[in-house]
Amino acid sequence: MELNIKRKEQETTTNEQRDYYKLCPNCGNFSHIKENHIHCSVCGTKLIEECPKCKTKIENPTAQFCVKCGEIMSTLNK
Question: 65 lies in which domain range?
C-alpha cells in the first residue's frame, strides 16, 4: 500500500513539473502557457493549448500533430 502512495506522489509531482504551450494552428508559432497570450504575435490567430480532437495538452512547442490521437495541430501540414 505504501509503495502505491509513493508512486502516485511521484506521478503527481511529474505532472506538475511539465511545461505546456499554446500553439498557433495557422503559422506554427508558440507561446509558453504561463505567458497568458491569447492570440499569435506573428499572425494574430487565436492560440490553442490542447488538441482540438482529444483535448491532450500541448507539451512540445513545435508539435505539428497530437501525440495521443495524431490530429493535425497546424494548417502548415494541410
Answer: 19-77
By residue count, the chain amounts to: 78
- How many CB atoms neighbour CB 47 within 10 A? 21
Q: Please give the model's pTM, rounded to 2 decimal places.
A: 0.71
Per-residue pLDDT of the chain (78 residues; tens, 9 = 90+): 555 555 555 555 455 678 999 999 999 899 998 999 999 999 999 999 999 999 999 999 888 899 999 999 877 655
Task: Flag whether 8 is in a domain.
Answer: no
Q: Which three cell numbers stand for residue 58?
A: 500541448
30 φ/ψ angles, rounded to the nearest 5 degrees = -140, 165
Establish if 9 belongs to a structural domain: no
